[in-house]
Each structure stands twice: as structure tokens, then as C-alpha cells.
Amino acid sequence: MPVEIRPLSPSLGAEILGADLSSDADFGAIRQAFADHGVIAIRNAGLSEDGHIAFAERWGQINVNRFFKPVETHPRIATVLKEPDHTDAVGEEWHTDHSYDTVPAMGSLLKAVDLPPVGGDTLFASMHAAYMALSPGFREMLDGLHAWHSSRHAFGADTEDTEKYRTGRLQRSDAATQDARHPVVITHPLSGRRGLYVNPVFTTHIDGWTQGESASLLEYLYDHCKKPEFTCRLRWEEGTLAVWDNRATWHKALNDYQGHRRLMHRITIEGVALN
Ligand code: SIN
Prior knowledge:
Blueprint (H helix, E strand, L loop, with lengths): L3 E4 L6 E4 L6 H14 L1 E4 L6 H11 L2 E2 L6 E2 L2 E9 L24 E8 L7 E5 H6 L3 H8 L2 E5 L1 H4 L7 H4 L12 E5 L1 E3 L6 E3 L6 E4 L4 H15 L5 E4 L6 E5 L3 E5 L8 E8 L6
Parallel strand pairs: 2-3
Antiparallel strand pairs: 1-2, 3-15, 4-17, 5-6, 6-17, 7-15, 7-17, 8-14, 8-16, 9-10, 9-13, 11-12
């Protein structure tokens, strides 16, 4: 039976049903859906930790996150955890993973382990759809720009008194030493489509611009990218595994389930330099 692919919104995202994650033929269809939709939610994936790692290795080399608490038995898997007595959620602001690295991660595979009874969805936004909705003149101006991204302000020593560090969900603030310069608009390495590559959590400023000039432009772009027509909403189910492309999308974990537990396992895959 061929896998069933159901789009989540006109801009991005698709659910995949009936996939056999050990089948090469199904992997071909999954990879095509990933290229077409930017983020896919594979339902009933039913993966163990070893199965999660084996499936991740089909996509490329694993890039171990420096800051997220690892799964004790499987240190290449990062935990994304919120306990009932926590108030902050990891990843609750719009961002794309690892943009502070010179060669940013291609994508992430996030597996639902323990879900709240309702809520805890993840929102995604298409950076290609957002870029294409800008005027040709504005796009031309953006095409010549580069921006700086950093891990320092997000995970460094100044953030040690946040709840996420105090509760041990984040660690190794001393490892937050990455700064990277990327084009503001990239050509996607797989699809060849143009898309915005700046994000509210890790981008610090436009190369060669003052903080004030940078902040005005970035704020305009962020408001634009958050428009509902460029987004989709993933409702997690037991057994769901999401795979998203960091070069094509932003994501945001909705923190709307106070008093409940949510545990996810994440594996991040190495990428390529962006142009
Ligand atoms: C993340 O930002 O990687 C986590 C997203 C989520 O928990 O939904």
C-alpha cells in the first residue's frame, strides 16, 4: 500500500499515514514529502530509542545538540521536556534550530513520548511562502544582505538563572560560543527555492547595520513571517514523529498546557553551508 500524504495547510506541512519506516520505497516517498512540504508528521511511527536513531541515520549524520539534556541511555537523543511544575517550555519562541552554527543543522526529528491531554501543539511557518509574499523591490534589497546569528544570548552564562537551566533541562552554558554569518535569503539546498533565513531567537543583527536599523528590519520581517497564512499547526498524537527542515521553516512549541507533562525526544541532522 502506498503511503498516504495529507497536506496540513496550503503553505507547508503534511501528515503521513501508513508508512513502514524500515522500507526503502516508503522512505523515498517520505523524503519527497519532506522536500515538498518542509515539515512532515509521520503518524503511528512507533519508534523505540534505537529505532529513532536508526531512522535518523537514514537522513544523514547525527548532530548532537550541545545544550539540551540528553536521554541518559541514548546520549545522541536530546530531551525536550516540561514537567507539571515548570512554567517555561523549551522552544516556545519562533526559531529555527542551530542557525548559530556556521554549517547549520539540516533538520530535526521530534518524537512524541509523553503528551498532555490537550495542547502542546507545534506551529511551523514557511520561509519560502513568507519571502514570496514580499514585493519584488523589497526582495531584491534583502537578497544582498547577510545577518549574524549567535548562541551566546540564548544559551550562555547570562541565561543560567532561567527556569530551563535551573531545572536541568538546558545545560552547558559554557558551550554557547557560536556566532555565524548567513545570507538573509538563502537558496534551499534541496529544492532550489528562495526563502528567508533569519529568526527571532538566534539572529542578532544585519551585517554592517546598526542595532537600531537591524531591529527595525528584523521586526518587520518577523511580523510578516508570523502571518497565519504562512503557517500550519501540528497536533501531536501518540506515536507521531515529526521531521522538519530548518532551512525552509520556523517552528514554535505552544506552551498552553500548564500543570501537565510533555516529553519529546529530538535528534538533529547535520546540514550544509548555506548560500
Ligand atoms: C524544538 O524547538 O525543537 C521543540 C519543539 C516542540 O517541542 O514542539
